[in-house]
């Protein structure tokens, strides 16, 4: 029988999970981690399952009602882990703003960060909110930082949703 299937909302979620697993020494051999390209594709991914393997879903809290409705129509067991706002928010809260900004600096993006932070709309906004916008301003940046932030986590800092997924898949 095939190993567990982990369904995540997007490519950055997959990148963060795989990076974190590698950094913590979790062997994902036999575990299929699939980016669904958006939570609204959950139904299709579940419908494609006919092999009886265990399923884990990682999603944002804002999608909970959709996930509830979709899982109510699914016959199999699903382990489910929920990020408060989104996975990036979980990573920022786990690391703290100063450590996240160290990661941004090391990645060579501190100038771009300051440009965004000093735009009139963002002045005075919480840095965590501006960071979430920052990752979406350049193609590939969200996935890049998913890997960098996940790699920066110490074992005691792993956000509960990610720790739950890793524990579930062994």
**Stretches with pLDDT under 50, minimum 5 residues:** none
Tell me the structural class: alpha/beta
Number of strands: 4
What is the percent of helical residues? 40-55%
The 3D shape can be described as: globular
Mean pLDDT: 94
Alpha plus pi helix count: 9
Radius of gyration: 17 Å
H/E element sequence: EHEHEHEHHHHHH
Instruction: Tally the structural domains.
Output: 2
Main sheet summary: 4 strands, parallel
Q: What percent strand?
A: 5-15%
N-to-C terminal Cα separation, in Å?
16 Å
Strand order of the largest sheet: 2-1-3-4
Keywords: Endonuclease, Hydrolase, Nuclease
Organism: Nocardioides immobilis
Protein name: ATP-dependent endonuclease
GO molecular function, one term: endonuclease activity
Structure description:
By secondary structure, this protein is an alpha/beta fold. It has two domains: 98 residues; 64 residues, no CATH class. It has nine helices and four strands. The protein has a four-stranded parallel β-sheet, with helices on both faces. Helix 3 links the parallel strand 3 and strand 4. Helix 1 runs parallel beside helix 8. The model has no long low-confidence stretch (mean pLDDT 94). Keywords: Endonuclease, Hydrolase, Nuclease. One of its GO terms (molecular function) is endonuclease activity. This is ATP-dependent endonuclease.
Keywords:
four-stranded parallel β-sheet, alpha/beta, 170 residues, 2 domains, 4 strands, 12% strand
Topology record:
Blueprint: E1 5-8, H1 11-24, E2 32-35, H2 42-47, E3 55-60, H3 64-72, E4 78-83, H4 87-95, H5 97-106, H6 110-117, H7 127-135, H8 141-152, H9 160-168
Helix pairs in contact: 1-8, 4-8, 5-8, 6-7
């Amino acid at each position: 029988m095939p190993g567990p299937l982990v369904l995540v909302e997007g490519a950055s979620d997959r990148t963060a999970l795989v990076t974190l697993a590698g950094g913590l020494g979790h062997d994902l051999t036999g575990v299929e981690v699939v980016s669904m390209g958006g939570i609204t594709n959950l139904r299709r991914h579940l419908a494609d399952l006919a092999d009886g393997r265990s399923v884990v879903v990682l999603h944002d809290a804002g999608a909970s009602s959709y996930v509830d409705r979709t899982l109510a129509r699914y016959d199999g067991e699903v382990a489910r882990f929920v990020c408060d706002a989104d996975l990036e928010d979980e990573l920022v809260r786990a690391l703290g703003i100063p450590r996240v900004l160290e990661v941004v600096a090391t990645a060579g993006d501190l100038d771009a960060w300051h440009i965004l932070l000093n735009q009139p709309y963002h002045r005075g906004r919480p840095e965590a909110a501006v960071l979430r916008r920052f990752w979406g301003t350049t193609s590939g940046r969200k996935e890049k930082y998913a890997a960098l932030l996940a790699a920066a986590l110490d074992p005691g800092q792993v956000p509960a949703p990610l720790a739950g997924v890793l524990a579930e898949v062994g």
